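User: These chains co-purify. Model them together.
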Amino acid sequence: MIIAIIPAFNESDSIESVVHAVKNHVDEVVVVDDGSMDETVKKARAAGATVLLHNLNRGQGAALQTGHDYAQTRAADFVLHFDADGQFDAAEIVPALQALQNSKADVLFGSRFLNKKGDLPFTKRYIIFPISKVINFVFGTPNMSDVHNGFRILNKKALSAIYIGQDRMAHATEIPALVKTHKLGYIEYPVTVRYFEYGQNVKGGFHILKDLILGKFIA
Amino acid sequence: MLFQILILLFSLFAIVSIFFRRAKDGLGIRATVFWILFWLGVDLVVLVPNSTTVLANKLGIGRGVDLVVYVSILMIFFILFRLNVKIEGINRQITKIVRKNAIDDVKKK
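Assistant: Joint model of the two components:
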């Protein structure tokens, strides 16, 4: 059984179509609503998703871990991380899952760069991306072709080994680091990303760095 | 002279309140000793202002006052850092509660 986990915060414009697109390719769609103030919850339910409610906004990393906890109660074999804004292509879920199963690895990371699918803004490619790589190196993540890609699939072993402690955006660095710590196998898989929003800017990057440093001092 | 008396009185008040906090709120032995030594140190500096200069010169700093300022700034930054770590820790505890609520709610249905 594969469960899709879609963290959502004020995504009422896109959540319905994303849930509809994803649910044909997985066994259950779980939308973790991170304290949205719009109609995200209503629309996600109407589209047929199981909705978990954070009654306070805790961040994307926190929402993913909530999804993990739920998936474990449902004895899921795989969990898929998928973004709520529609930047990923749901048609890539099944081939990605097959690739993971064939590889005998535990975790699949989506990559924008393996086959150079999707188009990336210039500053992302030449400024933010190289800086992220340095940060990832310092915090002990494996060297991968993409950083901070929200498309991931984890098997049961990875699901029970990985606990996402970073509540906000730093989980994207934390997860690969934990994969390395727990000696899990991983593969990268090319995914298409359509940019609707810019995503992490430089300020966001500083927040991530701060979270990563503070995280080192929390038991 | 007035300034010295005021500070001495204040430190006396501070030391007494440390003992009260130890008795009432269970302030730890390490914190108790630290704060008592801190205020006794303040008293020493107030009573013998040159004492900081002696120490400063040994460390290669010209004036005692400068040493006090440097040490104070370092301490403030350290305390800020500790506070940040503590706040992040509390944040993670809040997340755990929010998560438990979310899972419990969906199980009930």
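Chain B has two domains: 1-47, 63-108.
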